[in-house]
Give the backbone structure.
Amino acid sequence: MRGTSAGLPEHKACVEDDIALMTDPSDESLMSLFQRGDEQAYALLVQRYKDELTNFARRFLGDRDEAEDVVQETFVRVWRSRDTYTPASRFSTWVYAIASNLAKTRLRRWSLRRFVRLGEPQGGGTVFDLPDESAGPDGAAEDTFREERIQQALKSLPVKFREVIVLRDIQQLSYEEIVAITGSAMGTVKSRINRARALLRDQLRDLIRD
C-alpha cells in the first residue's frame, strides 16, 4: 500500500484526518471510524464511557474492583465485536447492554459460589441524593455513612429491580434506552423502577430529604 509523506498508510492517515475534521464526533461516528481501522476513535470511546460505566457497574455490583473488571471486559468485547455493531443502534445503548450482561453474569457466579459454600461443613425522578465527592472534611463522615446505606439498600434489591433503578436514577438514562438495554417492555421497565423506588424508600426513609 502506498504510504503518505508522514509514513502512515494512506487509509489510516485518511481515517485519522476524518477525526481531526470533526469538532465533536458522535459516538456512532467514532464507532464507524473504529470499524474502518482507527484505534484513536476507539480510545476516544473508552475515554467517554469508562467512568460512566464504572459508576454503573459499581452501583450494580457493590464492589469497585469487580466493577473495574467488568468495564475492562466490556471494552474488550467492544474491540472484538466491533464488526457486529450497526449504526441503527445507539452506541451508548449497545455498550451499556454489554456491561449490564457482564455484570449480571458476575452476579450469577457469586450466587453459585455462595450456594456451594452453604453446602460445605462449617470452618471451610431521583429519590435519594448521592454523596457529594467534593464535600469537605466536616461532611465526609456523613457522606460515607449515607453512601454505605444506599449501596447496601441497592444490593438488597432483586437484580431485575437493581438494574433498572441504577440505569434510570443514577445513570439517568431514558426509559427508551433502558428498554433497549434490558430487552424488556416499556411497561415492565416502568413497573420495576417504581417497585425499586418503593423498596428503597422503605429501607432509606430516614435519608430521604423533604
